[in-house]
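Email to the structure team, subject: Acrylyl-CoA reductase AcuI model.

Hi all, the expression group asked for a predicted structure before they design truncation constructs. Nothing fancy, just the tokens so they can compare against earlier work. One-line instruction: predict Acrylyl-CoA reductase AcuI, return tokens.
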Amino acid sequence: MSTFRSFVIKENNGAIVKDVILENTENLPAGDVLIKVMYSTINSYDVLFSRENTSFRKNTYPYVPGVDAAGIVVESNSTHYREGDEVLIFGNGLGQDVPGGFGQFVRVPESWIVSLPTGLSMQDSMTLGSDGIAAAISVMEIMAAGIQTNSKEVIVGGSSYGIGAFAVSILALCGYNVTAVTKYMECEDFIYELGAKEVLSIDNFTDNSGKHLLEDKYVAGIDTLGGDVLDTMIRSVKGGSTIAVCGAVLSETFSSSLLPLILRGINLVGIDSLRCSHSLKREALYRLAGDWYLKTLSFMCNEISIFEINEYLDKMNNNLIKGRIVVNHKL
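Reply from the structure team: attached below.
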């Protein structure tokens, strides 16, 4: 039995309160493995779930966010994981169905766990988080569609943090020419450091002409924004292109023409890195630990303590962050 800190979101007389409280490991739900969390991260998903009126969150109050965690096994009923093993959890219900990585201990089923791969530190793994997994799966979908690199043009919607930032880096590493769309041109230099060949503001990219088909500039796209950006992307890609849709930072809806899908054979692929298969998640992670290891991780990582989570959730909800926010439970 151990006492530990948790960042909790709760309701008090109709008001939403976010606070750091003391908890006890005996109050954690049943599970195969008890893990001491060393690092977590504020993902795009955590930001969406923390909004009061979002359709994304299924939690009831109170709950402990943090869809990802990296830590050390301290108790185990599993035949696969033993005390002292360094392990990772990406989604699967962490921070939704059970208390998440914003607490210093979690207890989960063994099927949710992935061993920390050679080539990644715990800090690296949480700099990536489920956002990095989503970006990797998005690139895997583009490649699976037969869209080869060869300096082909790819468009990424949203690129200053989270999934979009990782998508820019992975695509550039793989040899694609990346055009990045951002609302925040003050992050332009940062996005070029990630590997973009061109950076466009949302206003310069989005098209409100009403045309069903625009010039087909791009062989593929990855979008994290939704709304008018996704609409313009659909109308701007070449025949047979794949667009991976993995975020809704600006809007949870979009309106577009069906003609690009019909006349150009455009494929829209939804990306869910939280509840996708364990094998797909593991494949993406091991690519990120190997050929797709990103040297940009070091300058993307910004560490905070558990006591700073509320401040940074607010900043991320207002798009005031670039790079990645990693929660270091040792601070």
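The chain has two domains: 3-116+296-328, 130-270. The chain has a mean pLDDT of 92. Ping us if the truncation boundaries need rechecking.
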